[in-house]
Amino acid sequence: MEGYIYILLAGKEFLNTRELLFGSYIMKMGLGNLFLTLLFTSLLAIISVWYLTKNLRELVHATRRFQQGDLEYRIKDAERSDLASVTTTFNEMADTILEDMNKLQSIESLRRELIANISHDLRTPLAVIQGYIETLQMKGNKLTKEQRDNYLNTIENGSKRLAKLITQLFEYSKLEANQIEPKREPFLISELANDIYSNNLILAKNKNIHLDLNMDENLPLVFADISLVERAIQNLMDNALKFTPSKGIVTISVLKKDENVEINIKDSGYGIKTENQTLIFERYRQTKSGKKNEGAGLGLAIVRKIVELHNSSIRVHSIPNDGATFTFTLPIHGLNRTIQIT
């Protein structure tokens, strides 16, 4: 028998069906890949945004903490962040603001303390002046000339004391608030010492105190503020003359010590106890030994501030009943070295 076998490998309907199925498969694959791509891209975008804004969020958080009163909060490792310039600027700004606030609080505290001390320190001389003026008004012509002169002298002394207290209070307040900048210039410390010695001779003579001046020859120029140095030495002189008894000795010594010039003010007064020697430079600190005052109120506090403005320090050496010696140094002109007490 003979015949033919026909095999249809791909008919038209088959091809259409195959194309339809293949297209559907491709579409599903494309949609799946598209979904996966979108999902991956979204996750990547979220992670990227989170990472890129991490430092910004930290900066916002630090700003809010600072705004809420946490003045000590700072951004950690600010110099390593992606926004290093911004974060380090924030930390520096916060430090500056905190420093300025502390200064303002210090000035405000100083202002309140100054007002309190003024009212306290001025009350006594004002009361004395007022009392003697009222006595003069009440008794009038009943007072003898000697009594009247005595009252007037007391009033004058009280006025001078008031003027001195006011000057010291405002001078110290300016020094404490860093409102005084030393105007350094070269000058002869020997001439300044001679002037102070001459100006105090009459006062020392009236108190029956021997005043001595001891200086090295050919002392070099010092580089400092002459008016502030004069004020410091004069305060030490006032303190020495005040606490030196009759027939005592006060000595001014100006000596060259290496790269500095050393100034010493020595007295033969009552001396200062060892435990009180670190306290006498504090403002309004007055230590006592028996009936003798060892402190000098604001005078020594002003001296310490002036000496510190010249990058130096002041020290005291004293033995009770054997006087006291106050020492500080000034730099020699032309030598750029840190001043150290010897």
From TrEMBL:
The keyword Transmembrane applies. The keyword Ubl conjugation does not apply. SMART domains: HAMP, HATPase_c, HisKA. GO terms for molecular function: kinase activity. InterPro entries: HAMP_dom, HATPase_C_sf, HATPase_dom, His_kinase_dom, HisK_dim/P_dom, HisK_dim/P_sf, HssS/ArlS-like, Sig_transdc_His_kin-like_C. It is a multi-pass membrane protein. Residues 117-334 form the Histidine kinase domain. It comes from the Bacteria. Its EC number is 2.7.13.3. It is an enzyme of class 2 (transferase). It catalyses: ATP + protein L-histidine = ADP + protein N-phospho-L-histidine. Its main location: membrane. Residues 50-102 form the HAMP domain. The chain crosses the membrane at residues 31-52. This is histidine kinase. The lineage of its organism: Bacteria, Pseudomonadati, Bacteroidota, Flavobacteriia, Flavobacteriales.
